[in-house]
Write a structure and sequence with these properties.
Strands 1, 2, 3, 4 and 5 form a 5-stranded antiparallel sheet that branches. This protein has a single domain, classed as Alpha-Beta Plaits. The protein is 36% helix and 28% strand. The chain is of the alpha+beta class. The chain is globular and about 40 Å long. A hairpin with a 2-residue loop joins β2 and β3.
Length: 109
């Protein structure tokens, strides 16, 4: 089992942050299905202020390339992503078109 940690920011607006959290209380079933179909076995998102931190645990079938292809061919995922972008903003270090950025593990006990 492999683990990935990613970061993204929300727009720094309390109303938008609250709406974003509400959407994640009831994620669309098609989105959850697309997550598990890609080989993600566990996904958690944490929020501090407007900073998001996501932890993914994946099986051996998972790759970011595979997930990207699956998502680009899934109309419901594209609808969700467009909706979520209303609330999200790229990290200051993100390149054009990047959203969630993969974090480097720098310590483990």
């Amino acid at each position: 089992m492999k683990k990935y940690c990613l970061a993204l920011d929300l727009k720094d607006d309390p109303i938008l942050i609250s709406e974003y959290k509400k959407y994640h209380e009831n994620v669309w079933p098609e989105i959850e299905q697309s997550i598990t179909d890609s080989g993600i076995t566990s996904a958690e998102i944490y929020c501090l202020g407007n900073r998001l931190f996501m932890i993914l645990e994946v099986d051996n079938s998972f790759s970011f390339e595979k997930k990207g292809k699956m998502d680009s061919n899934n109309a419901k995922v594209q609808e969700w992503e467009t909706l979520m972008w209303k609330y999200q903003q790229a990290l200051p270090i993100a390149k054009k078109g990047e959203k969630w950025l993969l974090m480097d593990k720098i310590y483990e006990l």
